[in-house]
Design brief:
The chain is α+β, with helices and mostly antiparallel strands. The chain has helices spanning 2-25, 35-43, 110-114, 187-212, 220-241, 245-265, 280-296, 300-307, 314-365, 367-411, 415-428, and strands at 48-52, 55-58, 60-65, 70-75, 81-82, 87-88, 90-92, 95-98, 101-105, 116-118, 125-126, 132-133, 137-143, 146-155, 158-163, 180-182. It is built from 11 helices and 16 strands. The longest helix has 52 residues, at 314-365.
Length: 429
């Protein structure tokens, strides 16, 4: 009974969040719900934190303008939030808030750079219900010989084009180097702070309980976390790492609980539904951490089999095996990064799509069909939330066990060393 109530509360919160954003995303009367926009807005990072449809919390912005060489620091509330997609109706020091993300005006007037002023002009305006209709628009433009979708707004009959923050992906994921850097505390960063703070408090509490209840059966929060700690210790660390399990257990537990905490926090829709572990930036850092620990811990046996495998002709090493092994060293963290990102993001997207079926049916056939569709939509959403609850644990476990497997490969002693030890042991007897 308690579990069903929890599921009902989660689905109810998700429906409330989607209903409000769907009403905002529909735009003017007669327009359909922008399901794609809502879905991508839900999984994207932002400079505002939408706890739920009614509470929007501003976050600190730390922006560096490369053109002027000046820093701008302020709360994102200065943009004056409108609607449910995180748009701002004000220009602040040459920056605007478009779909929750800070963007810089490419061709600002001197007045736009001095302080803050309203975007509203002959194109953008605030409606009476507080929603922003067509505050920002997009169009296709040719930039550096490539056709690209560019955001802009109109004011006093003039178009002002926008550029996104500098991204360090070297164009792999569509980012580029622009004229400003964004070092702000975003929604994902704030969510990580919350989860880390919660985990620190929980494990400090558990540590205290172990000291005060020594020799007693675990209870409360200690009883909840101890099976997971023992499971990682006995089923991951010891089987994979052998005698060195104590050395790497803290790292494995940190990875497991950090990913698990972020995954579970993102499952709660009325806490913002953050998609932290579905962000490539976060999974990249986790993968790099695993990569560094694995390869720094690697022994001579490990590197010898990567760079110059024994018992293999030199031409075969140079032509095929060594390049393949070196590539494999970098492919492992990439697969860790992409697997976690794809699975968590897909879960968020699927739930949004299931809920969106209600609003698609409403636009296509009216409220009566929408009510009928809601029965199946809610059932599918509840099923997916149950699956995602499992996925939260599974993905944390998969990342941890694969890291342990890579550590095993990098720290394993050579078989010749094992045989020599056994011969010395036999000779001693």
């Amino acid at each position: 009974m308690k579990l069903s109530r929890i599921f009902f509360a989660l689905v109810f919160g998700l429906l409330l969040a989607f209903t409000n954003t769907a009403n905002a995303g529909g735009g003017n009367e007669g327009e359909g719900v922008d399901v794609e926009g809502i879905a991508f807005h839900h999984i994207a990072d932002a400079n505002v934190y939408n706890w739920n449809p009614w509470i929007t919390m501003p976050l600190p912005c730390f922006l560096y303008n490369k053109d002027t060489g000046k820093w701008s620091t302020f709360l994102s509330s200065k943009f004056h939030f409108v609607g449910h997609h995180g748009d701002g109706s004000e220009i602040v020091k040459g920056y605007v808030l478009n779909a929750g993300s800070v963007m810089k005006i490419k061709n600002p007037t001197p007045e736009m750079m001095e302080g803050h002023m309203s975007i509203a002009g002959d194109h953008g305006h605030d409606s009476h219900d507080g929603h922003a209709h067509h505050l920002f628009s997009t169009e296709l433009k040719t930039v550096d010989g490539k056709e690209k979708e560019v955001s802009y707004f109109e004011k006093d009959g003039q178009k002002f084009y926008l550029e996104d923050k500098t991204a360090w992906d070297f164009g792999v994921f569509g980012g580029e180097f622009t004229s400003f850097y964004d070092f702000s505390i975003t929604k994902n960063v704030f969510s990580m702070f919350l989860v880390c703070l919660f985990m620190i408090l929980v494990f400090l509490r558990i540590t205290k309980m172990y000291k005060t209840n020594e020799g007693k059966a675990p209870s409360g929060v200690q009883g909840f976390f101890e099976p997971m700690i023992v499971f990682i210790q006995d089923e991951v660390a010891k089987p994979f790492l052998g005698k060195k399990w104590k050395q790497f257990l803290p790292f494995l537990l940190t990875i497991f609980f950090f990913i698990l905490g972020l995954n579970l926090f993102g499952q709660v829709p009325f806490l913002g539904g953050s998609n932290v572990s579905g962000s490539l930036s976060v999974t990249l850092v986790l993968a790099v951490a695993a990569f560094l620990v694995v390869n720094i811990s690697g022994n001579a046996h490990y590197w010898g089999h990567i760079v110059w495998m024994p018992g293999v002709p030199a031409w075969l090493k140079i032509a095929i095996l060594t390049p393949v092994e070196i590539i494999g060293v970098f492919i492992k963290p990439i697969t860790l990064m992409l697997r976690l990102f794809a699975n968590i993001t897909a879960g968020h997207m699927v739930m949004i799509i299931f809920v969106s079926l209600i609003f698609i049916a409403r636009d296509a056939a009216g409220d009566g069909i929408a009510w009928l569709t809601s029965v199946g939509s809610i059932a599918l959403t509840m099923f997916m939330m149950a699956i995602e609850l499992l996925v939260a644990f599974i993905q944390a476990f998969v990342f941890t066990i694969l890291t342990a497997a890579y550590l095993n490969a990098s720290t394993e002693e050579s078989h010749d060393h094992d045989h020599s030890d056994s011969h010395e042991h036999a000779a001693a007897h």
